Amino acid sequence: MQNFLQLFDTWHLIRLFGWLAYFFFSMSLVFGMLSRMSSFKKKWGLFSAIHMSSSWAGLFATLGHILILIVDSYQPYTIKEIFIPFVAQYDRIASGLGTLAFFIIVIVLFTSDVMRSKMNKKVWKRIHLMVFPAWLLMLIHGVVMGSDTKTVWGTSVYWISGIIIIILFLVKSMNRGTVHRKTVSDRSTAS
Ligand code: HEM
């Protein structure tokens, strides 16, 4: 019983919410990229819905992750240390990267779900593409700070998610190049 209850102490909960946040944001990135690929045109609605809902789930998990840090008795964070990047006493740089990732995600979600219809498309797109550096910041943050990084499952999750996201990113970038070239050649044939 004692061992079971220990699973719900703040340290375990901080780690659990950190992993959930990383998992949901990675999932959001994967489905966001899949939804833009021509091979999955018919699945666009489903993939976009997964993309949006997993990013909100990731945001709520991050809120859990950082709010429990405030009440943690072993290594408590102040509100300032959580929301102002690079001022935390514990692992200043890696904590700061987590804070930056958090702010980027908040801005991307706000501009996508609340402001999108009122925004210039190019500006919106530029802001939206910030999810890639944000994901990289989360990855570095988790790898550097996590107690589970050295476990087999922890390392595997980082490697597998990293490889999937990099492959999809490359495929998507190549796809985009082909579509762009086609459009340009269509235009020149037409004129
Ligand atoms: C989008 C934002 C964030 C994500 C996705 C995220 C994700 C993660 C992940 C995956 C871990 C590794 C868990 C483990 O292996 O135990 C972790 C650990 C940690 N994070 Fe975050 N994090 C975020 C923001 C923050 C912020 C803003 C702070 C505080 C300034 C923070 C503080 C910590 C701490 C102290 C740990 C170490 C927990 C431990 O293992 O003892 N995180 N985070």
Task: List descriptors.
single chain; binds protoporphyrin IX containing FE; mainly alpha; 191 residues
Structure write-up:
It is a single chain. The chain starts with a helix and ends with a helix. Helix 2 packs antiparallel against helix 3 (44-71), helix 2 (10-35) packs antiparallel against helix 7 (131-145) and helix 5 runs antiparallel to helix 7. The chain has helices spanning 2-6, 10-35, 44-71, 79-83, 92-113, 121-128, 131-145, 152-190. Helices cover 77% and strands 0% of the residues. It has 191 residues and is an all-alpha fold. The protein is built from eight helices and no strands. The structure holds protoporphyrin IX containing FE (HEM). The site of protoporphyrin IX containing FE has 29 residues, from helix 2, helix 3, helix 5 and helix 7.
